[in-house]
Design goal:
This protein is an all-alpha fold. The chain contains four helices and no strands.
């Protein structure tokens, strides 16, 4: 059980160390894609504005209809529109990834708290042990036992309780 506790602790600490870096990298990627989306939107607006200046018609509705037709046949506009669609999809996927990583980090934090509570419980449920000033377990002469109320643990007792 001790090995399993140590392995769980090691896994949790590794995840707590790695996840913030993964979240930061995903957020940087998301920011870069959002910039690309904004740049693509600006280019589309510029193309639409320049085409709208060349469109002539009797009223606003006619000019708008002709602009829609002109944009539908404009190759650069259509290519940029497709690129914008892909960039938007990528931004959505990265936003979901950042959210998932953030939730995963919160879950690992909760697991770490539960693991710490378990270790604390298991540590306080053990046999009474005397420690010296350095924090080492004191093993008195073999005559001391758990039953003489001196709270010493002999080497035999330690072996029996799994220390």
């Amino acid at each position: 059980m001790q090995e399993q506790l140590i392995n769980t602790y090691t896994q949790l600490m590794t995840e707590l160390d790695n996840l913030p870096h993964e979240i930061a990298a995903a957020q940087n990627d998301l920011t870069a894609v959002k910039r690309q989306v904004n740049d693509s939107k600006t280019l589309l607006d510029n193309i639409e504005a320049s085409l709208s200046l060349t469109i002539e018609g009797k009223n606003a509705e006619e000019r708008k209809a002709k602009l829609v037709q002109a944009l539908a046949t404009h190759q650069n506009y259509q290519r940029l529109k497709a690129t914008l669609r892909k960039e938007t999809e990528e931004a959505d996927m990265l936003a979901n990834s950042v959210d998932a990583l953030t939730r995963q980090y919160a879950a690992v934090c909760f697991q770490a708290r539960l693991h710490a509570a378990l270790c604390s419980f298991l540590g306080s449920a053990g046999a009474p042990v005397n420690l010296n000033s350095l924090g080492d377990v004191v093993f008195p002469p073999a005559t001391a036992t758990r039953h003489n109320n001196n709270h010493f643990v002999t080497a035999d007792d330690a072996a029996q309780i799994g220390l």
